[in-house]
Description:
Layout: H1 6-37, H2 46-57, H3 63-72, H4 78-98, H5 106-116, H6 122-132, H7 140-143
Amino acid sequence: MNVAPNWFMYFIVFWAIVMVVAMSIGGFFMFRKFLKVLPMRDGKSKLDWQNYWVERSRSMWSDESKTLLDQLVSPVPTPFRDIAKHSIAAKIGQVAIEHGADSVTREHCIEGYIRATPKRDYRSLVSFLDRQGIDYSPYKHLLNK
């Protein structure tokens, strides 16, 4: 019987490692999604609250605020952009409703964008806002929390 060449064995081991890594990365993101679906103390999950704020504020969005939202989510990688847009829109809608506004303004968009961004991404958030020429000085206190 012939024995398989060494390069073939290394090839099999390489692809086994690639498959394990790919499945681990996918499992990590699926687990994060699972955690968002679990209900919190009030009985609603994080995704339920996002859907609530988006639906409640849907009529408040103008074309200008939608354009600004598209501009704000532009640095997010394309595969994740829709999810990020939904969660940021939910936070912006929540901010606008809690302020008692009739429509979503530029200020609500900037504040909601900062509130929706995780702390670990504040450095890239600030550099993006600076590059775009967006004044976030009234909300600098939110970046220190």
